[in-house]
Amino acid sequence: MKRVGLFIPCYIDVFYPNAALSTLKILKDLGYEVDYPLNQSCCGQPFLNSGVFSEAKGLAEKFIEIFKDFDYVIAPSASCVATVRYRYRELLKPSKELEKIIANTYEICEFLHDVVKLKELRVSFPHRVGFHQSCHGLRELELGVGSELVKPQYSKVKYLLNLVKDIEIVDLKRPDECCGFGGTFSINEPEISIAMGRDRIEDHKKAGAEYIVGYDMSCLMHMEAIAKRENEDIKFLHVVEILAGADDES
Predict the structure, then answer these.
(1) Cα 143 to Cα 157: distance, rounded to the nearest angstrom
(2) Topology of domain 128-243, CATH
């Protein structure tokens, strides 16, 4: 049996535990032996974004030491997985452990599509859903793109969502557009960041979405904060919560 190490990003651990629990549930339901190492920490992305490479290196070394013996490392975060896959070689010396971690670390939707090759889900979500494609998943993990500027390509995440009964995925005008969060960008340029987030919410509202869903809770957290502050009647969920059988929370 393949052993899975569950990596839960900092903000999900603190603010959105349901995304973590849903990831665990769907992996266990598929028959995987899942372990959650209690000594895990940050992947180092915030430090890399801020240019603090010495701190990022220490976290990368710790990540590899913790997860090196697992067959797969799975996380409900495209940005953290992209950090491991595309930034760790900048920080660390070449090694077999590094290459194994890079090859075997997956975002949960990517894993379900590419490795599990999921073909059926016995869950229902009778709601109109707008799918937000975060930048790391869209442009680095290549989970799927499509807009008037980019020739539409196959979407791994939409494939999974379409396995859910009764769901309706609405069409957006700008499905490839950034929400404005961008880690430190939202701190350094808050006015622009909020304006970008507001644009994404408006696009989903005009399309008739009841929920905005995505594979990066950091982006959803940013938009959810704007929506709550402005009393917008729209909800937010990680994609894996729907795939694991989330109930309507209204």
Answers:
(1) 7
(2) Rossmann fold (3.40.50)
Query: Where does the chain hold its CATH 3.40.50 domain(s)?
Result: 3-116, 128-243
Residue 106 host element (H or E): strand 105-107
Q: What is the pTM of this model?
A: 0.93
Cα torsion angle, 7, 247, 156, 205, sign: negative
CA 63 vs CA 79, 88, 249: distances in Å: 15, 10, 34
Architecture of the domain delimited by 3-116: 3-Layer(aba) Sandwich (3.40)
pLDDT tens, position by position, 41-75: 999 999 998 889 999 999 999 999 999 999 999 99
Nearest-angstrom CA–CA distance, 193 and 214: 18
Q: What span, in angstroms and rounded, lies between the C-alpha atoms of 168 and 242?
A: 12
